Amino acid sequence: MTVEEFEEFYAQTVTRLTGQLYVMLGDLHEAQDVVQEAFVKGWGRLRQLDRDGAPEAWIRTVAWRLAVSRWRRVSRSAVAWQRSGAPPPDEGPGPESVALVEALRGLPAQQRRTLALHYVCDLAVEQIADETGLSASSVKTHLSRGRAALAHRLQDPRIEEAPGD
What we know:
Order of helices and strands: HHHHHHHH
Low-confidence stretches: none
Family: Belongs to the sigma-70 factor family. ECF subfamily.
Pfam family, one: Sigma70_r2
InterPro entries: RNA_pol_sigma-70-like, RNA_pol_sigma-70_dom, RNA_pol_sigma-E_actinobac, RNA_pol_sigma70_ECF_CS, RNA_pol_sigma70_r2, RNA_pol_sigma70_r4_t2, RNA_pol_sigma_r2, RNA_pol_sigma_r3/r4-like
Largest sheet: none
Mean pLDDT: 79
Shape: globular
Strand content: under 5%
Protein name: RNA polymerase sigma factor
Keywords: DNA-binding, Sigma factor, Transcription, Transcription regulation
Number of domains: 2
Oligomer: single chain
């Protein structure tokens, strides 16, 4: 991949990849950070991006792994804070949060990632299995359970069920 091809690839995919990671992570700033860092890593591996033949999937996977690494660091940091005293109280999400993002945040990380890869990235079950290392049946299970959980979480409490339903 040439420098010009990489620049064009970046321009065409950065917004889409950031949106995909935002859905997977539930945090726009984190998504922006990990996608940018993944592109920096991709810049240093132009030949590998070209050789793999799926540079967008490569960037998305690297960004996901970077996010997971950050979560682990934060988790270890939280344990250290608990040992030395509680951190200051953290305010919950503000009213500007979107219902879907909140519902997605309530799902297990693997379900959220699988749903995002399927519905946001428009990947087939087999492609998700290749990208995540899960079996196709596990991907289908995550999709099914994730859809059911989202349907339950996104029900409008103002809508009452009709008698006899």
